[in-house]
Specification:
The complex is a heterodimer. Chain A is mostly helical. Chain A has one domain: Orthogonal Bundle (Helix Hairpins). Chain A is 68% helix and 0% strand. Chain A contains three helices and no strands. In chain B, the strands form four sheets. Chain B has a two-stranded antiparallel ribbon. Chain B has a two-stranded antiparallel sheet with strand order 3-4. In chain B, strands 5-6 form a two-stranded antiparallel ribbon. In chain B, helix 19 packs across helix 21. Classes of the chains: A mainly alpha, B mainly alpha. Chains A and B meet through helix 1 of A and helix 32 of B.
């Protein structure tokens, strides 16, 4: 028996992807790993945007985000690129100072 | 002079004369040290100012005499009625005079007073008042409180013009004299009466310019006083002359005696001025104005002055049932009126050195002699008499009685003390007191013109006498007459001019023929006192008797002075040897004043015009008399038929409290009165003169024998009736005692209380300090601490662990979702 792929499936994938990203952020001590987690989380969200904008999944125009949702996804991608550039610059500089990218050691901003 | 408007010119001239000495004062105030280095420039400057003032006053006098009377009631016409006693009563139709109600009558007088030279309805004014209308005007309004207005204004009538001329003339003579007398002040002065710390005579810089500065200020103030048209303005200048008197008595301020004398004069005058103030207040409450004349208000409507208001008040209270004046019900309080009169007179008592405030005048002789002549003989002390004269119509009869009594007591005290005093200037001072008493007596018994005439003549001859004594003192360097003697050979000008002065004050003259100025004025007072004796036999006898005896005493002590100083052999060869006649600048004023002392009583040859007649024409009637019906008798009865016995009826101003009336003055010119009185005065003066001649001139009778005969009397007089001792005991000692007690109270009660309060305050401050630190600060600190602690606790959350933050964020997001799902 073949179930059709529905919106919920996409959302589940997005949620799993997001959770993986969060776990990655929480568990990884390597700063690059954390950044990867960030990318995962952002892309998890992106799946949601795209899924919710798809006319195939949501034929009713009242419920579909349409091009707006895809536009938001594009925004997120651009944002992620910018974020990655800044974060990598920070990580590089951090490495130059401490010869490490362990985020647990980067606790100088503690109260 | 019809071309020139006298109403505008005369005030302008007199105000100019008034302000000239102020200008000289102003210049000297700032430049006197600079001028002092240039010889006598300061003196001549002041002389110039006073000479200008005198010139202006003389011109004003000329205008005043030549201006056509406002009411068409000419001087000449009136002088007929004066010269001919028969006409005196008839010149005024008595019935029409009294048919008109007083208030509208006076309002007409107001209009006349605004345009004195304009033609006016002659008849009405004629009936209202025989006096020429005074010129009144306001220079500026100083202050205004509701109905009360204080203005700098003038009130010019014959008395003002004569006083201004007299003051400026005497002041001019004395200024010129002072240029010579004060010459020693030009350079450094050695005062042998003051020792410095090393016991050597004090050397001080001269104060020539300072002296003339004060003299100028005085002249300004005195002219302002006589010109003033507002009682408060009079009071201001009254105080100013008092201040000048204080400065000049204390001119030799290094001498303790001069300091004391200046203080005494000032304090004693304060006593009188206190009364003056009370009088002013009573007057303000009674009539609501202090302006003498009727000044126009801003709208141009004339508002009633003191005299017209009072007249309206008196007339507005019909009191036929009470027999004349109303008593205190409904608006007009007679008690207040009497209080006002007494208060004003009290000021005059202080200024004119009347009993019981006469004690300051002899001590005031500490000042330089020209000062004694100008201030303490001729002008300032006469200001009291002048004020009584100025205020005269408004006095209630009771107060006139007091004035007469005080004057009589004063004249006796002054004359008797003068008998035994050996200090030359003090003899003259007591003589001044005595003569001022005469003036007061004259005014008090109704002799307005007589009293003020004596004021004018007295100013001339007493200034002369003082200046002569100054000349003597200048020459011999002592005031003590027993050290003088025989000086007439050394200083003839002084001696003979002083003899003229002595004759004038003694009232030398032949009744009915001719006499010196003092003869006329004193005789006028005596005649009035004689008339008063007839109306009030009980008291009047004492008054007249004292005045007559006083006349004899005057002659005696004046010639005693002259003989002791100028006649006989020298008593002190050393002093005699060094004596010399004074320089011409000092002798010239003596000659001028001697001429005036001789001639001031005469009438202009060929006419009936004289000082006395001028005053007589301007004689005011008592307001009390105008409102009472008894004065009708005066106008109806021909004077020459009134015998002295009958004249008791022909009187003015009976009083409800004190029914003895004041006689009308023109009755005293009746030959039936003036004749015998003249001879009596002549006899009294002759007795005094002869006695003095025998005792001091011929030295046939030793004065010491009199002293031995009645030692008690001598001691009594020598101690000046023990007034100083009495005041010392009654006022000074208790005052000092009170002062000491007050100091004690201050130290032991007030100081202690103040200290206690301070200590208490300190304690309170400590308490508050504790409260502040402990509680107020504590509260603030605690809350700050708590916030700090909270921060410390909260900073632990901020670990810096990036992953932890993410975890918290996730958990927070999950928590929000959970909560939201729970809520939905």
């Amino acid at each position: 028996m073949l179930h059709p792929v529905t919106l919920a499936h996409y959302l589940v994938v997005g949620a799993v992807l997001f959770s993986c990203g969060v776990l990655c952020m929480v568990l990884k001590r390597n700063a690059l790993g954390v950044l990867m987690g960030v990318e995962l989380a952002l892309n998890g969200a992106n799946i949601n945007w795209v899924a919710l904008s798809s006319p195939a999944l949501r034929a009713d125009p009242a419920w579909s985000l349409g091009l707006d949702g895809q536009l938001m996804a594009l925004f997120v991608i651009v944002l992620a690129a910018g974020e990655a550039a800044v974060a990598l610059a920070i990580a590089l500089n951090y490495y130059r100072l401490y010869l490490s990218v362990d985020v647990d050691q980067a606790s100088q901003l503690k109260g | 002079m019809p071309d020139i408007d006298g109403a505008k010119t005369i005030p302008m001239l007199l105000v100019g004369a008034w302000l000239l000495p102020l200008g000289s004062f102003g210049v000297l105030l700032f430049f006197s040290p600079w001028l002092d280095r240039r010889g006598r420039a300061a003196g001549w400057l002041a002389v110039g100012a006073v000479a200008g003032a005198f010139l202006l006053c003389t011109i004003a006098l000329g205008f005043w005499l030549s201006q056509p009377p406002a009411d068409g009631f000419g001087w000449s016409q009136h002088s007929v009625s004066f010269a001919d006693p028969e006409a005196a009563g008839h010149s005024i139709p008595a019935d029409s005079r009294h048919s008109q109600p007083p208030a509208p009558r006076h309002s007409h007088a107001l209009r006349v007073s605004e345009q004195p030279s304009g033609p006016s309805d002659a008849g009405t004014f004629h009936e209202a008042n025989r006096r020429p209308a005074p010129m009144v005007g306001r220079l500026f309004t100083w202050a205004k409180f509701g109905q009360y207005e204080i203005s700098i204004s003038y009130y010019i009538d014959t008395l003002t013009v004569l006083m201004c001329t007299m003051v400026s003339l005497v002041a001019l003579c004395i200024h010129i004299y002072s240029v010579g007398y004060m010459a020693e002040e030009l350079h450094e002065v050695v005062d042998p009466l003051v020792l410095d710390a090393q016991g050597k005579p004090l050397r001080r810089p001269g104060r020539f310019g300072r002296f003339f500065q004060y003299l100028s200020l005085f002249t300004f103030s005195m002219l302002g006083l006589v010109l003033a048209g507002h009682l408060v303005m009079i009071f201001i200048f009254w105080e100013l002359v008092g201040l000048c008197s204080y400065f000049l008595i204390g001119f030799y301020r290094e001498r303790p005696s001069a300091q004391q004398a200046a203080m005494k004069a000032f304090v004693v005058n304060r006593v009188g001025d206190m009364g003056f103030l009370v009088g002013l207040m009573a007057l303000g409450g009674l009539v609501g104005t202090w302006s003498l004349g009727d000044l126009p208000d801003p709208a141009g409507e004339p508002t009633g002055g003191l005299f017209s208001q009072l007249q309206t008040l008196l007339a507005g209270q019909p009191g036929p049932s009470s027999g004349g004046l109303p008593s205190s019900d409904g608006g007009f309080s007679r008690t207040l009126w009497i209080l006002a009169g007494l208060g004003i007179f009290c000021g005059c008592v202080g200024k004119s050195a009347q009993f019981p405030l006469h004690v300051w005048l002899p001590d005031a002789m500490e000042g330089p002699t020209p000062v004694s002549a100008l201030i303490h003989a001729a002008t300032m002390v006469a200001a009291g008499v002048y004020l009584v004269g100025r205020f005269y119509p408004a006095f209630p009869p009771e107060v006139l009685w007091v004035i007469a009594g005080v004057g009589c007591i004063t004249l006796v005290i002054g004359a008797t003390i003068a008998l035994v005093v050996t200090d030359m200037k003090r003899v003259l001072a007591y003589s001044t007191i005595s003569q001022l008493g005469y003036m007061m007596l004259g005014l008090g018994v109704g002799g307005w013109a007589a009293g003020l005439f004596h004021l004018l003549t007295h100013a001339f001859f007493k200034a002369l006498l003082f200046l002569c004594s100054g000349s003597v003192i200048h020459a011999v360097g002592t005031n003590e007459m027993p050290q003088m003697g025989g000086l007439r050979r050394k200083m003839p000008w002084t001696a003979w001019t002083m003899l003229v002065g002595c004759l004038a004050i003694a009232g030398a003259g032949v009744p009915g023929l001719v006499g010196l100025s003092g003869f006329y004025s004193k005789e006028a007072i005596l005649a009035q006192a004689y008339l008063f004796w007839n109306t009030a036999p009980a008291v009047g006898g004492w008054l007249f008797g004292s005045a007559l005896v006083g006349a004899g005493l005057t002659a005696f002590y004046m010639f005693r002075l002259w003989y002791m100083t100028f006649a006989g052999p020298p008593n002190d060869e050393h002093i005699y040897h060094h004596a010399h006649e004074s320089p011409p600048v000092m002798v010239a004023p003596l000659v001028v004043l001697a001429g005036l002392a001789v001639a001031a009583g005469w009438s202009v040859p060929g006419t009936a015009r004289s000082l006395q007649q001028l005053l007589d024409q301007d004689r005011p009637t008592l307001l009390a008399a105008e409102s009472s019906s008894s004065s009708k008798l005066v106008d109806q009865a021909p004077v020459d038929r009134i015998s002295p016995e009958e004249s008791g009826r022909a009187v003015s101003a009976g009083s409800a409290f004190w029914p003895v009336p004041i006689p009308e003055e023109h009755l005293s010119h009746d030959p039936a009165v003036a004749g015998p009185v003249g001879w009596m005065a002549f006899a009294a003066a002759l007795v005094g003169f002869l006695l003095a001649t025998v005792m001091y001139g011929l030295r046939k009778l030793e004065p010491a024998r009199f002293v031995q005969a009645v030692p008690a009397v001598y001691t009594f007089l020598k101690n000046k009736w023990y007034f100083d001792q009495l005041y010392e005991m009654v006022f000074v000692r208790p005052a000092l005692w009170l002062a000491e007690r007050t100091v004690d109270a201050d130290r032991h009660l007030l100081d202690r209380a103040a200290d206690g309060m301070a200590v208490g305050l300190i304690r309170l401050a400590h308490l508050e300090d504790w409260l502040d630190r402990r509680w107020v600060d504590g509260l603030v600190n605690r809350s700050a601490e708590a916030a700090y602690r909270l921060g410390l606790e909260l900073r632990r959350v901020q670990t810096g662990q990036l992953r932890q933050y993410v975890l918290w964020a996730v958990l927070g997001a999950v928590a929000i979702f959970v909560l939201l799902s729970l809520g939905s």
